[in-house]
Design brief:
mainly beta; signal; Lipocalin; 60% strand; Transporter; globular
Length: 286
């Protein structure tokens, strides 16, 4: 049986980085993060939204994320998954312990994202901006013995979002909320997508932030690409999901910190039905 083998798009959407409510970094300021992200799944959401079992498949990614303020209104953004390992465990018979199918793994770079963010409005504790991110097809869209061990989708996409954020006091502690809506134009026969999400965080102590996120992708189902590639495995076209996640970020110094994130899709189509975990070290220069 062939099914969803890799959802590299999650590496980007599930690894949204911890940032302040201030959308633009400011000239000369920046935020940089080295992350390790892992997803191991033995079940997936089907195209009808049901959950089916699958052979245990894993995705491990090491990435660099960065934001830098060119001016007070213009930031450059990059996401570089410089090492991605897609693997499947060996299938062992529960009856006699014999190996039914050997395990396999592929190591490669993933799809790189580059973008810019432009500040549209800033009033007191409110900020409005727009972001353009370009997804470069630098990963492998066919790899492994059956071509299903992808680290990228092979298409060039353009995601444009409108982002709004506000900071405030909650229980006498600094807090923020931000939200976005966006449109993702995809090429190579993939369907376009509508994106939206919301994030909120609170500074519990002088060095500890706790935050939660909800993100969603909805397919317009206007592509020409079949739900199956030449090898028959489903990959990244017409995926849909709602994910819920939480993150803690601890500042070791005023600039250096560590973070831990847990995110899971609570509903979806053509996507893994298991949570992802990521950990990172970040540098916040203000």
């Amino acid at each position: 049986m062939k099914y969803l083998k890799s959802t590299l798009i999650l590496c980007f959407l599930f690894a949204f980085q911890f940032v302040n409510a201030q959308w633009n970094k400011g000239k000369g300021n920046g935020y940089y993060k080295l992350s390790a992200w892992s997803l191991v799944a033995d079940q997936h959401y089907t195209s009808t939204g049901d959950i089916d079992p699958n052979a245990t498949r894993g995705n491990f990614t090491l990435s660099l994320y960065g934001e830098y303020g060119l001016t007070n209104k213009l930031d450059v953004i990059t996401y570089l998954p410089f090492f991605t390992r897609i693997y499947q465990n060996a299938q062992v018979s529960g009856t006699n312990g014999s190996v039914i199918q050997e395990g396999e793994a592929v190591n490669a770079v993933g799809d790189i994202d580059v973008g810019i963010r432009y500040g549209l409005l800033k009033r007191n504790h409110f900020a409005l901006s727009t972001t353009l991110k370009l997804g470069l097809p630098t990963g492998k869209d066919k790899a492994g013995s059956d071509g299903s061990y992808q680290t990228g989708d092979g298409e060039f996409n353009q995601l444009i979002t409108v982002d709004a954020g506000t900071s405030y006091q909650l229980f006498h502690k600094p807090a923020y909320t931000k939200a976005y809506v966006g449109f993702n134009n995809r090429t190579q026969g993939f369907s376009d997508e509508f994106h939206y999400g919301i994030e909120s965080g609170i500074k519990l102590w002088s060095k500890l932030w706790v935050l939660g996120r909800i993100n969603s992708i909805n397919s317009f189902k206007n592509g020409t690409l079949s739900a199956q590639n030449a090898q028959g495995s489903i990959f990244a076209n017409n995926i849909e999901y709602i994910s819920v996640g939480g993150e803690v970020a601890y500042y070791i110094t005023s600039k250096l910190g560590v973070s831990l994130n847990y995110t899971s899709a609570v509903s979806g189509r053509i996507i893994y039905a298991r949570p992802s975990i990521s950990a990172g070290v970040f540098l916040d220069i203000q």
